[in-house]
TrEMBL record:
Name of this protein: RNase H type-1 domain-containing protein
UniProt superkingdom: Eukaryota
Any GO MF annotation of the entry: nucleic acid binding
Keyword Signal: yes
Residues spanning the membrane: none
Length: 81
């Protein structure tokens, strides 16, 4: 007798903003649902930028640990080092 299991992965995007001293400013989370990891990372990045804009932050350093996102934006020349 064979048993089959269905594994459903639900993704959540989370992030936070810190000031120049490293102190917490604001955080967020978003339920993304069933999706790709790349899409979840992009949603989290979008939400972080939107949060910074809503707080009138005009200079932002973004730390992303997803190599796919970094590669994608590097190809578009959107990241500066």
């Amino acid at each position: 007798m064979h048993q089959f299991f269905i594994l459903q992965v639900v993704l959540v995007g989370v992030g936070l903003l810190r000031d120049s001293n490293g102190a917490w400013v604001q955080g967020f989370s978003r339920l993304i649902g069933s999706s790709s990891v790349l899409l979840a990372e992009l949603w989290a990045l979008r939400d972080e930028i939107a949060m910074a804009l809503n707080l009138n932050i005009d200079k932002l350093i973004i730390n992303v640990d997803a190599s796919e996102v970094i590669n994608l934006f590097s190809k578009l020349n959107l990241f500066t080092t």
